[in-house]
Amino acid sequence: MQLTQISPAIPLTSLDGRYHEQTAALAEYLSEPALNRERITVETEWMILLSNGFEGNGNKPVLSGIQPLKKSEVNYLRAIADNFDADGIARHAAYEAKTHHDVKAVEYYIDDELDKAAEVFGSDTQLPGLKTLVHFACTSEDINNLANARCVKKAVTAVWLPKAQELIDSLTSKAKEYRDLPMLAMTHGQPATPTTLGKELQVFVHRLTRQLRHVRGQEYLGKLNGATGTFGAHVVACPDVDWFEISREFVTERMGLIWNPLTTQIESHDWQAELYSSISHFNRILHNLAVDVWLYISRGIFTQVPVKGATGSSTMPHKVNPIRFENAEANLELSCSLLDTLSNTLIESRWQRDLTDSTTQRNVGAALGYAVLALDNLSGGLQCIHPNFDAMTRELDDNWEVLGEPIQTAMRAQEFAGHKGMEQPYEKVKELMRGKRISRSDVESFIDSLDFDDETAARLKALTPETYTGLASQLVDFDLQ
């Protein structure tokens, strides 16, 4: 039995197969049928604007000889996209098989729906006679750039952003919960000045929030200006129409995008490069988080909650593998690779047009799909870990040498205050502590051997690796929204 003979067809990629449940929401906006539905919306809304005008032109038809559409006829046109179902998808595909042109297939699909209008409104309706208005003065990219922008905007707004915010909210909650929990820091993999677990998580909250702000503020651009961006056909057909005003109205008010008046045949895609770069940067911060948490688990800082019935290893029954974080790493790398390729490819086009952007943009769904999958893995992973308090306390108590920093810094201050024997503080502490295991008594003896004032000596003696966390707890409270 060949797998290609099985029906329904077996998905080629894991996003539509193994991980379908986690990524299915994106199909509503970034699948081929979703794109065609938006193309239908662009085409029919363009017909409505040309027929009924807008407030700026007194709600008069843009083209002479057209009667304004009735409200019921406007609703009928808008319903063509709303009712684009499985049968509609198949009918469009049949047209595309003949035309070998996806946008032309959309045009013929709308023509069919206009013919059916007489069955709804009777023979008096003008809709069947408006076929010539479909795709009026448009090049395919007038339709495609607007449809793609609307698809991407909806996918980011409805799917990616909520999941990204959910992860940040989860991290924020954990940062606040563990704001005062002391933890040995590691710089270059070596014991360093202690911090708190909450503060370290808040660092990621801060970084991710900044990137999310870029995504939320992203402009989504669109154009409608003809075959090479000159409004050439528009002006020849209707020289008395203010096509700048019409184009701006359509793109901004009807399509909900930012109007781009200066383009070649294609909208230049710079906004897409900006957006994908921001999401890719967000991904890389998440990758850093996934790696750090993985290392914390390996070190014993975090303990994983076993999933009942789950197998960690096929041969070692004791294992609880950090697979959520490993899966997140891999999917973030795949997402970044695609997003980076999109950013690099889409901003270039040979002279006024080539088709490299057409096939490239069909991979936006995959790029965001891997990102969404990673977000789900990270969110699930964070819910299944908790701090190992005993291990964290043990680490701190085993590394009294980290108090060398505050002692030598206090010595510098004492030297300025006129206390004797405080010169070369760094060198003296280095001789005592570097490469050695130091106990509390060693630290106290060293402090007693120096001419600290009583208050400073008492403050240093009261210090432990567990209490030497500076203002870490307060940093968690910074308002970074």
TrEMBL record:
Domain Adenylosuccinate lyase PurB C-terminal: 349-469
A GO BP annotation: IMP biosynthetic process
KW Nuclease (keyword) present: no
Pathway(s) of this molecule: Purine metabolism; IMP biosynthesis via de novo pathway; 5-amino-1-(5-phospho-D-ribosyl)imidazole-4-carboxamide from 5-amino-1-(5-phospho-D-ribosyl)imidazole-4-carboxylate: step 2/2; Purine metabolism; AMP biosynthesis via de novo pathway; AMP from IMP: step 2/2
GO molecular function, one term: N6-(1,2-dicarboxyethyl)AMP AMP-lyase (fumarate-forming) activity
Protein's UniProt keywords contain Lyase: yes
Domain Fumarate lyase N-terminal per the UniProt entry, residue ranges: 17-328
Keywords recorded for this protein, A-Z: Lyase, Purine biosynthesis
Role, per record: Catalyzes two reactions in de novo purine nucleotide biosynthesis. Catalyzes the breakdown of 5-aminoimidazole- (N-succinylocarboxamide) ribotide (SAICAR or 2-[5-amino-1-(5-phospho-beta-D-ribosyl)imidazole-4-carboxamido]succinate) to 5-aminoimidazole-4-carboxamide ribotide (AICAR or 5-amino-1-(5-phospho-beta-D-ribosyl)imidazole-4-carboxamide) and fumarate, and of adenylosuccinate (ADS or N(6)-(1,2-dicarboxyethyl)-AMP) to adenosine monophosphate (AMP) and fumarate.
Protein name per Swiss-Prot or TrEMBL: Adenylosuccinate lyase
